[in-house]
Design goal:
CATH topology of the largest domain: Aldehyde Dehydrogenase, Chain A, domain 1
Protein name: methylmalonate-semialdehyde dehydrogenase (CoA acylating)
Keywords: NAD, Oxidoreductase
GO molecular function: methylmalonate-semialdehyde dehydrogenase (acylating, NAD) activity
Radius of gyration: 25 Å
Pfam families: Aldedh
Low-confidence stretches: 1-6
InterPro entries: Ald_DH/histidinol_DH (IPR016161), Ald_DH_C (IPR016163), Ald_DH_CS_CYS (IPR016160), Ald_DH_N (IPR016162), Aldehyde_DH_dom (IPR015590), MeMal-semiAld_DH (IPR010061)
Strand order of the largest sheet: 14-15-16-13-12-17-18
Number of helices: 17
Bound molecules: nicotinamide-adenine-dinucleotide
Number of domains: 2
Mean pLDDT: 95
């Protein structure tokens, strides 16, 4: 690791309600992608430091699980208020450590805030079922209990929102929670933790561990962790699911994507181009719901590509941090997360050309030069299904375009896709939209909507290699994941019958 400036902030961990900066053998640098400068360093915890944090979370569990759910929810109401008060600060922090534009960061924090609002309503959602007289004199009830210590492992692309998909729900359901944010963007998670403590969360209910593989492996195998929520790339999501379930934990594990955007010839082309650009280039393409393969049906192909190239070429690209760019507020697209990632994204343009596709707009030539990790929007035309740009998740501002002759052909492309997060159709035909909704091989569907975004109240229903597990994050499934059910059968015999044969009821 390169030498660190002596003043460089080491990102603190949270354990048992106390912040500390443990000495670690290894650190990961946190960059400001707008400038390319290192702004902090993340300690990469080993097994024993991670286990200590888990033990603290386990120690806090009994008292928190026994706290009435209405009181637990009240912490979320206060948390929501604090997040509102610090909304702009949280948004700027996302931009600073991630690089997305301020508008995108604000949208992210808003989606996260909605998860807190959802969690504040959990008392109503946790109410159980009951059936009196399921047998004579016997009543049945089914209620939800917390599962125990839960852990969340999150990716770099939503430093604020994805942690909020997890811990507000888990905690309000009565669990304690260990968050392991992405080591590339840990600052938002730390700020979220500080505000939650300020909201009155008791010590140890939320912990924050930092690290990479070793830290995650400890969370996946430790006997005191009951449930794992993971969001990240597909290869890691699969490992997390397999390791966690092998160690007896319930696991929800969300992975990568290759989202198809189908454009019918009757689509409103101006609107469609705008929506496609927002879908493919929003957050510089670093979204698991980013549209990355446009499938143009019939006559849609030429006007679509022409519109995308014109739109993409006109986008402003550059430093998104308002501290270094006075025009940040109106910026079209910010940098990507790291220099290596920018190079990887750029390499796909060479791969596409070698495979025989046409690079219609080359983001490497975009203006907006800064010392940051900037790459402009690209459009790759005439992409065939077997090409790597048609199949692989690039996770950058590259939109590939395939041309097909019919909706059936577009649906068949979806059938061949290993992922299944989302898919969108642009059309004015209700029939085509309905066919698409019914038949496309993905869990989140958009009709004339660029990104069928996951919303707090509905489950984020990734399919295929985009999700491993049964119960997804968010919505009712999130609550089901963080709770286990208990059924009780109750009989209260009359006192005057108590001298009778103990199995009197069976004789009634
Ligand atoms: P990543 O898989 O590299 O990292 C995610 C988390 O896993 C991080 O906290 C990281 O520290 C940890 N990790 C990395 N390698 C590990 C290993 N070998 N063993 C154990 N833990 C490991 O993902 P990323 O680059 O941070 O995020 C981008 C990916 O996340 C993209 O593929 C994107 O599609 C996906 N994503 C999916 C969703 C979804 O809901 N499906 C949402 C956001 C992002």
């Amino acid at each position: 690791m390169p030498a660190q400036a002596p003043t460089l902030t080491t990102v603190p961990v949270l354990s048992g309600g106390k912040w500390s900066t443990p000495a670690a053998d290894r650190y990961e640098e946190v960059y400001n992608p707008s400038t390319g400068q290192v702004i902090a360093r993340t300690p990469l915890l080993g097994a024993s430091e991670t286990a200590e944090i888990i033990e603290a979370a386990a120690a806090a569990l009994p008292a928190w699980a026994a706290t009435p759910v209405v009181e637990r929810a009240r912490v979320m109401f206060r948390y929501r208020q604090l997040m509102e008060e610090h909304f702009e600060e949280l948004s700027v922090l996302v931009t600073r450590e991630h690089g997305k534009t301020l508008a995108e960061a604000r949208a992210e924090v808003q989606r996260g805030l909605e998860m807190v609002e959802f969690a504040a309503g959990i008392p109503a959602m946790l109410m159980g079922d009951s059936l009196p007289d399921i047998a004579r004199g016997v009543d049945a009830e089914c209620v939800r209990h917390p599962v125990g210590v839960c852990a969340g492992i999150t990716p770099y692309n939503f430093p604020n929102m994805v942690p909020l998909w997890m811990f507000p729900v888990a905690i309000t359901c009565g669990n304690t929670f260990v968050l392991k944010p992405s080591e590339k963007v840990p600052l938002s998670a730390v700020r979220l933790g500080e505000l939650l403590i300020e909201a009155g969360l008791p010590d140890g209910v939320l912990s924050i561990a930092h690290g990479a593989k070793e830290c995650v492996e400890t969370l996946l195998t430790h006997p005191k962790v009951a449930a794992i929520s993971f969001v990240g790339s597909t290869p890691v999501a699969k490992i997390v699911y397999e390791t966690g379930t092998r160690h007896g934990k319930r696991v929800q594990s969300a992975g990568g994507a290759k989202n198809h955007l189908v454009i019918m010839p009757d689509a409103d082309m101006d609107q469609t181009v705008k929506q496609l650009a927002a879908s493919a280039y929003g957050c510089a393409g670093q979204r698991c719901m980013a549209g990355s393969l446009a499938v143009a049906v019939g006559a849609a192909g030429d006007p679509l590509v022409e519109g995308l190239v014109t739109h993409g070429a006109a986008m402003t690209v550059g430093a998104s941090d308002p501290g270094v760019n006075a025009a940040a507020e109106s910026l079209g697209m910010g940098p990507v997360i790291r220099k290596e990632h920018r190079d990887r994204v750029a390499s796909y343009l060479d791969i596409a050309a070698e495979d025989g596709a046409t690079v219609a707009l080359d983001g490497r030539k975009a203006d907006g030069a800064s010392n940051g990790f900037v790459i402009g929007p690209s459009v790759v035309d005439r992409v065939a299904p077997a090409m790597r740009v048609a199949k692989e998740e690039i996770f950058g501002p590259v939109l590939s375009v395939s041309r097909v002759d019919s909706l059936d052909e577009a649906l068949a492309l979806g059938d061949g896709c290993e992922y299944g997060n989302g898919a969108v159709i642009f059309t004015q035909s209700g029939y085509a939209a309905r066919e698409f909704k019914q038949r496309f091989n993905a869990g989140m569907i958009g009709v004339n909507v660029g990104v069928p975004a996951p919303m707090a109240w509905f489950p984020f229903t990734g399919w295929n290699q985009s999700f491993f597990g049964d119960l997804h994050v968010q919505g009712k499934e999130g609550i089901q994941f963080y709770t286990r059910q208990k059924v009780t059968l109750t009989r209260w015999p009359r006192q005057e019958d108590s001298h009778l044969d103990p199995v009197w009821a069976e004789k009634r």
